[in-house]
Amino acid sequence: MKKYKLLATAAAGIEGLVGNELRHLGYEAQVENGRARFQGTFEDILRTNLWLRTADRVKIIIAEFKATSFTELFDHVNALPWDEYLPLDAAFPVEGKSQKSKLFSVPDVQSIVKKAIVDKMSSVYHRRTRLPETGAKYPLEVALNKDMVLLTLDTTGSSLFKRGYRIEKGPAPLKENMAAALVLLAHWYPEKPFVDPVCGSGTIPLEAALIGHNIAPGFNRDFICESWPNVPQGLAEQLRAAADAQADYERELDITGYDIDGKMIEIARLNAREAGLLHNVHFKQLAVKDFKTTKQNGVIVANPPYGERLSDQEAVRELYRQMGDVYRPLTSWSKYILTSDLQFESYYGQRATKRRKLYNGSLRTDLFQYWGQRPSKKNPASQRPNSKD
């Protein structure tokens, strides 16, 4: 099976997690801004689409070259072996973007790339009429950055954050892959209690459950490359069966999602049912200020409202104060709170152990991390592998 140069794309700030995921899956990965590079066959392409929790897409790198004129762009694209990627009837839309490049007109760049591919395909397949484009879809992207062209073929289709279980959502929902990133950044272990105190439609607790049970996040969805005739038939089914065998559905988990809004709790339960996790995650209507626990060494991961509108800011900052009052006494617990309010610490009432800049869509946010105290060495029975908490 042919090996390809590949990219796993990601939101700014979490590409390092994608690189770690790839290495955990057994690939050598090089992390760059917004992406991680690796190599693999179509089996690896399907496997990474199936298993990557924090990536957006998996793409085949078709070519990289410099172009400062449309003639250069056409000639480079036209010289590529397009028949190795696209069958005669392939539908191949071309998307584009350009940054700090002489070829700044994206519509013109897209048009030139399309013309160059059509010209080459017509020559190879001996076509004098228009190409049919009635077959499987092969989404192409031409991205220019400082006159360097990156030409890629998307194997994913709908972004990997679309797991397939979120049938309803609330206002400003967190994408599933960002929710998974928050869980991974919290260094949560499945034997620990996990709480999302403002769970909304349940995305963070559900992603924690998928991780805790080792369920492949792409298990219940399809990828666009599955329809390509050059992908071996039955391969996707084999990989899904292998993923199913690796899942630990019987593992006991202590995961709870709370929200003050009873309607959001109903939505979270609907999504949990769709994900097959209704009995694995507990959802309950509860205000942040009313949270109490006697459990030890737990993890709290929260994506509270940010108060972007001035009218909401006072109420949101009161919520941050309540979080501080309730969570500060829980010294054995680790807390990870995502917000765009850079004054969060002053309202929470405690300086964070660490802050990490992340982008929730295009919005700059910070993950405020409060690490729990490690279990005492005097009690070996309480020791857990939580050195990163």
Indicate the topology.
Blueprint: E1 4-9, H1 15-24, E2 30-32, E3 35-40, H2 42-51, E4 57-66, H3 70-78, E5 94-99, H4 106-124, E6 140-145, E7 148-154, H5 176-185, E8 194-196, H6 203-212, H7 235-246, E9 255-259, H8 262-274, E10 281-285, E11 299-302, H9 310-327, E12 334-339, H10 344-348, E13 354-360, E14 363-370
Parallel strand pairs: 5-6, 8-9, 8-11, 9-10, 11-12
Antiparallel strand pairs: 1-3, 1-4, 2-3, 4-7, 6-7, 12-14, 13-14
Helix pairs in contact: 2-7, 3-4, 5-6
Reading the helices and strands in chain order gives EHEEHEHEHEEHEHHEHEEHEHEE
What class would the helix/strand composition place it in?
A: alpha/beta
Summarize model confidence as the mean pLDDT.
94
Biggest sheet record: 7 strands, mixed
Percent of residues in helical segments?
25-40%
The strands making up the biggest β-sheet line up spatially as 2-3-1-4-7-6-5
Q: What is the 3D form?
A: elongated
Residue windows where pLDDT falls under 50 for at least 5 positions: 380-389
Number of helices, where a helix is a run of at least 4 consecutive DSSP H or I residues: 10
Distance between the termini: 42 Å
Task: Report the portion of residues in β strands.
Answer: 15-25%
Q: How large, in whole angstroms, is the Cα Rg?
A: 24 Å
How many beta-strand runs?
14
